[in-house]
Amino acid sequence: MQTTLQALPRAQVLAQRAFSALERFLHIEAVSGIVLLIMAVAALLWANSPLAPSYDALWHTPVSVSVGSWAFSQSLHFWINDGLMTIFFLVVGMEIRREIHEGALSDVRQAALPIAAALGGVLVPASIYLAFNARGGQPNGWAVPTATDIAFAVGVLAILGRSIPGNLRVFLLTLAIIDDVIAVLIIAFVYSGGLDYSGFAVAGPGLLMVLALQRIGVWSAYAYVIPGAVVWGGLLMTGAHPTLAGVVLGLMTPVVSVPMRERPMDALARITRDLSDKVGPSGCGAASGELPLRELRVAQRELLPPVVRVQQALHPFVAYGVMPLFALANAGVSLTGLNLAAGGASAVVSGVAAALVLGKPLGVLAASWTVVKLGWCRLPTGVSWSGIGLVGLLAGIGFTMSIFIAMLAFSDAALLGAAKIGVLVGSAISAGGGLVWGTVYVLRQRAARTCL
């Protein structure tokens, strides 16, 4: 292998190293969280600058899709929030599917603690929000502070370094995924409004097409684009939020590779031997058309099951494309035109911010302590109550999903702006608190190891 690399042109070797480094860089959670933060700050600055009219004009630009006489036109804002975010929810659905199959959600006893913590992290923030909005407020926004932003939360945890126990990171990821499950259910059953059941007549055949393709062994992701679009269109017609199509398709993604007569590794080894025999040591031999290229591609592809392969392929696009674009399109709240004194806006801001900053850690800690004291489960190895508190603080970073739910909960622009301000303030304080507490936690961990 070393001889082959030395024989390559230096420019090619450098390019390969650069692309490998870039690929590793794109899968670092802390980096994607920083990009998301930069876009949110950029949106706020843009919406409150002399260029503010261009910010609103950009997202209201109509974008049309037409085939013959049929045309479908919506704003750029719609295509980002209802179109591209479907891909985000597709990745969420696949994460949930993997966890149910072989992860923390595959064992009820193992999942009991993060499930309880997630439920506490939903109920307590919702109660705090409702307490702020009990008298003439806006109770419809109770679900806004219940979600956790995985990219931000895990990104902050990654900034704290390798001293954080691996089990604590797994606990945070599991809690955030369960939060996503709850958020999806809330969107489906609370904020979808009255359903037009005729849309299911469109979505249903789309799902049947997906099942049929899986049944006949078609595992190329591109083959599922059209059925996925049909499901998306059907859900849009029903009045349910069309991004739920992503969750449904993600949950339907196979967790095992396509059935083959032999294991992919065995097939690769056999094909390699066949190629060596045909080509020979001189490098001359059978024409490329005679080589089992299709079989080789299938074996290479099926080394990873579809749910892993597609998720890994979409991760950079979602983390560095979809989510930052969503932040840029939705975090731009004009502070000059925001009137917190009217229509319960101040209660919305206070309720959302307090629920994220106080409700999340209190809910996570209280629920975790309760189920542990009852003997239903125990803390993961290497995880202390200080670590659970850190997870609770980071769970208060609600950014992406909270803003998404806010747009479903509030049709009034002033209330929506107030909810976004509450999300931004609450998430920023939670992230700052998590960094401070995390630093103290890391120092205690190092001191404990030094004493040992």
UniProtKB/TrEMBL annotation:
It catalyses: Na(+)(in) + 2 H(+)(out) = Na(+)(out) + 2 H(+)(in). It is found in: Cell inner membrane; Cell membrane. The keyword Disulfide bond does not apply. Gene3D superfamilies: Na+/H+ antiporter like domain. GO terms for biological process: regulation of pH. Keywords: Antiport, Cell membrane, Ion transport, Membrane, Sodium, Sodium transport, Transmembrane, Transmembrane helix, Transport. GO terms for cellular component: plasma membrane. The keyword Membrane applies. Na(+)/H(+) antiporter that extrudes sodium in exchange for external protons. Belongs to the NhaA Na(+)/H(+) (TC 2.A.33) antiporter family. This is Na(+)/H(+) antiporter NhaA. It comes from Aquabacterium soli.
